[in-house]
Task: inverse folding
């Protein structure tokens, strides 16, 4: 979702119709980020929503991980490790792609 869902006090689960409604806005946002190379989806709704758009952005690498809420992470510490490892990998992929000293493609 390209916007917050919930009230001022509490976030709530994303509704399927909201995922559909957010697609156009997300496409517009992504068109403003031409150098974006990595997307990390966090949770099942984000993964499903991104899957509907990922084909339009084949140059973007997609990584998936758990939702970062306490409800998701606190019962299983391995999930927290997975989230952190996924974010580290995303940072490495993004840094490598933009490394001016990295390998150069020649055609």
Result:
């Amino acid at each position: 979702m390209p916007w917050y869902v919930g009230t001022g006090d509490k976030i709530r689960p994303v509704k399927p119709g909201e995922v559909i409604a957010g697609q156009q806005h997300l496409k517009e946002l992504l068109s403003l980020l031409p150098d974006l190379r990595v997307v990390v989806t966090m949770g099942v709704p984000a993964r499903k929503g991104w899957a509907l758009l990922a084909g339009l952005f084949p140059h973007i690498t997609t990584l998936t991980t758990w939702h970062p809420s306490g409800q998701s992470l606190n019962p299983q510490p391995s999930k927290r490790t997975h989230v952190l490892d996924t974010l580290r990998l995303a940072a490495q992929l993004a840094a490598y792609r933009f490394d001016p000293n990295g390998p150069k493609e020649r055609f």
